[in-house]
From TrEMBL:
Keywords: Cytoplasm, Disulfide bond, Phosphoprotein. It is found in: Cytoplasm. This is OBSCN protein. PANTHER family: OBSCURIN, SI:DKEY-31G6.6. The keyword Flavoprotein does not apply. Its main location: cytoplasm. Residues 18-101 form the Ig-like domain. Pfam families: I-set (PF07679). PROSITE patterns: IG_LIKE. It comes from Grallaria varia (variegated antpitta). The gene is Obscn_2. One of its GO terms (cellular component) is cytoplasm.
Length: 101
């Protein structure tokens, strides 16, 4: 706000979060049945944008079988005690960017 005497004007600042990009892609993982499989990728910046992990077309959430971690720009997925049914494509999406292994 700028005020001079009996006149005043006001403006607003709006900020948009720049889109994060994937700078370290997922790598393929080979594991034995019953072991954990760990997938990691790194983004260009910390972001509040929605990031999502998928096994095939199924979105994953943290639970007793899947652990999803975010540490700064590093995003990790741990599939606990994998079985043959866990074989397939793991995908990570953030904004318009995708990586798969």
């Amino acid at each position: 706000t700028c005020a001079t005497g009996d006149q005043q004007t006001t403006a607003t600042v709006h900020l948009k979060e720049p889109a994060a990009t994937i700078v370290e892609m997922l790598k393929d993982v080979t594991s034995y049945e019953g072991e954990d499989a760990v997938f990691e990728c790194r983004l260009s910046r910390e972001t509040a944008q929605d990031a999502q992990w998928f096994l095939g077309d199924v979105p994953l959430q943290s639970n007793e079988m899947n652990e999803i971690r975010v540490q700064g720009t590093r995003h990790s997925l741990i599939l606990r005690k994998v079985t043959l049914e866990d074989c397939g494509s793991i995908t990570f999406k953030v904004g318009q960017h995708t990586t798969a292994a």
